[in-house]
Design a protein that fits this description.
The complex is a heterodimer of chains A (209) and B (376).
Chain A lengths: L1 H13 L2 H13 L4 H21 L5 H24 L6 E8 L6 H12 L2 E10 L1 H8 L4 E5 L8 H12 L6 E5 L5 H7 L3 E2 L3 H12 L1
Parallel strand pairs in A: 1-2, 1-3, 3-4, 4-5
Chain B lengths: L2 H9 L10 E2 L4 H9 L5 H6 L5 H10 L3 E2 L18 E5 L5 E4 L4 E5 L9 E4 L4 H8 L14 H9 L7 E5 L3 H7 L1 H10 L1 H25 L8 E5 L3 E2 L2 E2 L3 H21 L5 E4 L8 H6 L4 E3 L10 H8 L4 E6 L8 H16 L3 E5 L9 H15 L1
Parallel strand pairs in B: 1-2, 7-8, 8-11, 11-12, 12-13, 13-14
Antiparallel strand pairs in B: 3-4, 4-5, 5-6, 9-10
Helix pairs in contact in B: 7-8, 8-9, 9-10, 13-14
Classes of the chains: A alpha/beta (209), B alpha/beta (376).
Chain lengths: 209, 376
């Protein structure tokens, strides 16, 4: 059983989504616990992918194929997770801000967060403050993405809308995107900033700890 | 000195009478914003294009010398013919899915700005590659630009700007056609096809450059050659540097060797984003001018690259266009930041991409005035 978990882990590291799919099925049939598969096989692998990206050894293509392998395995595993009563690391509403239709960065962050055990509510692109605020009622974390300097200012309005909707400030807001900086995040009252998809995971975890 | 001579002096670390002032164009939305404010006419906003008469007029009005985006010789080293632009679907909110000339399905939505996002790609695998893309990537003489007027202007001395030979793209186009996600998946799922695509593009660009050189009289030597890639983002490259070096690097070498035989030794590449991890491959394979040195949130600058790689590495760009949204003090501070970079030599400041709609006309004008005060 440990071998199967290791093979799933390595399959995700290598981006072999078909192998991962087959091995997850085999592992479930062999009685491997869904929790072990998720935590030791998948989340652990994606954590290593993130570490390698931050270390400059993996790049975006490697991150994408690993995330795809993870998602393929997770699709098989998901029905079994409910039975196993496994808690998600958190629930995240993610979207690109109003006026901005770009979603590649947002999608990559969503993949990495899902790979780390978060549940994702993907709001899409060109998302209004109202829609973010509505989604905020049902999540622990709101993640905003902007690709353009001209849409970045919309993040402030969204943070204000979320804070107005969730007055006790239990929902945290993180931001990211090409023109976004840590200084800007502080300036507009975001709870966190992530320079890339991998660090979005560590920021999300630290905010919800 | 004319601007052509000045640019060559900058890149060859020689003396010059004053630093040329260059820009890299504007977003469409910026032009319409300026038209609304009365700085240019609506007709000018509609009809602007790199290097046309309107571009020359706006350039002069703002105080620049010329638009850096100005190729003289070249060929269409991409899809030929392009795919027909077609609206595929109009969505309930009025946005439109449109297939563009690259076979990429983009989403056009009123009220949004910038380059439309990609939502799908015609190129998914071998079938589409062989049926629809390969036939568009074979060399034919009709790809060549008509260079007769420019040849005459250069030979007569009437043309006084740097003479660029446009090469094309060795990977950026492929990334465009496939999309970032599918290009990553293809590398893993079908490395043979991935290789074939890179080889195909490499050969096409080589043939286009060869044909362009054959078309230009031997005594008319372009000042520099120029590639386009756009394969990086704020954290680094969208392709593994190892893959880029192994698979794309040799094509650069082959083409820069060809250019070198013709006396063209200044070779530039246009790549937005954080390019540091790809610079070694470019330099090793003959590409020695980085453009537009997007400052971004990663604070790109030619200074650390010059320290690391020496004087062979030149640059154009590196002026943080974001200051145009602020005020004169911010513009002055930015010019002051550029001063030691210009003193390094081999470097020409230029706004680090096309000016976005938050760039205030008066700030851009002030930049030009102040640059002339500081740099002559």
């Amino acid at each position: 059983m440990e071998t199967l978990i290791k093979e799933i882990y390595q399959g995700i590291m290598d981006g072999q989504h078909k192998d991962v799919e087959a091995r997850v099925q085999s592992a479930l049939q062999a009685g491997v616990s869904p929790k072990a598969l998720l935590e030791e096989g998948m989340i652990a692998a994606m954590a290593e992918v993130g570490r390698l990206f931050e270390a400059g050894e993996y790049y975006v293509p490697e991150m994408l194929v690993s995330a795809r392998a993870m998602q393929t395995g997770l699709a098989i595993l998901k029905p079994h997770l409910k039975d196993a009563d496994i808690k998600a690391a958190g629930r995240v509403a993610i979207g690109t801000v109003k006026g901005d239709l770009h979603d590649i960065g947002k999608n990559l962050v969503a993949m990495m967060l899902e790979g780390a055990g978060f549940e994702i509510v993907d709001l899409g692109t060109d998302v209004s403050p109202e829609k973010f605020a509505e989604a905020a009622r049902d999540v622990n974390l709101v993640a905003l993405s902007a690709l353009l300097t001209t849409t970045m200012p919309n993040m402030k309005a969204i943070i204000e809308a979320v804070h107005a909707a969730i007055a006790d400030r239990k929902v945290k807001v993180i931001i990211g995107g090409a023109p976004v900086t840590e200084a800007f995040a502080r300036q507009i009252g975001a709870d966190g900033y992530a320079p890339d998809a991998s660090r979005a995971v560590s920021v999300a975890k630290s905010l919800l700890a | 000195m004319n601007n052509r001579e000045r640019i060559l002096a900058v890149f060859n670390y020689q003396g010059y009478d004053r630093l040329p002032l260059v820009h890299f164009g504007y977003w469409t939305e910026t032009l319409f914003q300026w038209a609304e404010e009365g700085h240019i006419t609506l007709e000018e906003a509609r009809a602007w294009a790199d290097g046309n008469a309107i571009d020359l007029a706006i350039t002069k009005k703002l105080g620049f010398d010329f638009n850096w985006a100005c190729a003289s010789f070249g060929a269409n080293a991409s899809l030929h013919p392009p795919f027909e632009w077609k609206i595929l679907e109009v969505l309930p909110d009025g946005s439109r899915k449109v297939v563009n000339g690259n076979g990429v399905v983009i989403l056009e939505k009123d009220g949004t700005q910038g380059i439309p996002p990609e939502v799908d790609h015609l190129l998914k695998g071998r079938r589409e590659w062989e049926e629809s893309f390969l036939p568009r990537l074979r060399f034919s003489p009709d790809r060549l630009w008509d260079a007769s007027e420019r040849i005459q202007a250069v030979r007569s001395g009437e043309w006084q700007l740097p003479v660029q030979l446009w090469c094309g793209s060795l990977y950026g186009s492929l990334r465009d056609w496939l999309g970032m996600v599918n290009s990553a998946y293809l590398q893993a799922d079908d490395p043979v096809l991935f290789d074939e695509m890179i080889q195909c593009l490499g050969h096409l660009v080589y043939e286009c450059v060869q044909a362009t050189l054959d078309h230009i009289p031997a005594d008319t030597v372009p000042d520099y050659a120029h590639f386009w890639e756009d394969i990086c983002f704020k954290s680094g490259p969208l392709i593994s540097p190892r893959v880029f070096r192994e698979k794309v690097g040799p094509h650069y070498r082959r083409i820069t060797d060809l250019l070198g035989k013709r006396g063209i030794h200044l070779i530039s590449v246009d790549c937005d984003g954080k390019i540091d991890a790809l610079i070694p491959t470019w330099l090793e394979n003959g590409v020695n001018v980085m453009f537009p040195i997007e400052v971004g949130t990663w604070q790109a600058s030619i200074a650390p690259w010059r320290e690391k790689y020496g004087r062979e590495l030149r640059g154009v760009g590196g002026m943080d266009k974001k200051v145009f949204a602020l005020d004169y003090a911010a513009v002055r501070a930015e010019v002051e930041r550029l001063r030691p970079l210009v003193e390094l030599g081999g470097y020409l400041p230029c706004p680090d991409h096309r000016l976005p709609p938050d760039a205030k006309w008066e700030n851009v004008q002030y930049y030009c005035e102040h640059m002339r005060k500081v740099f002559g």
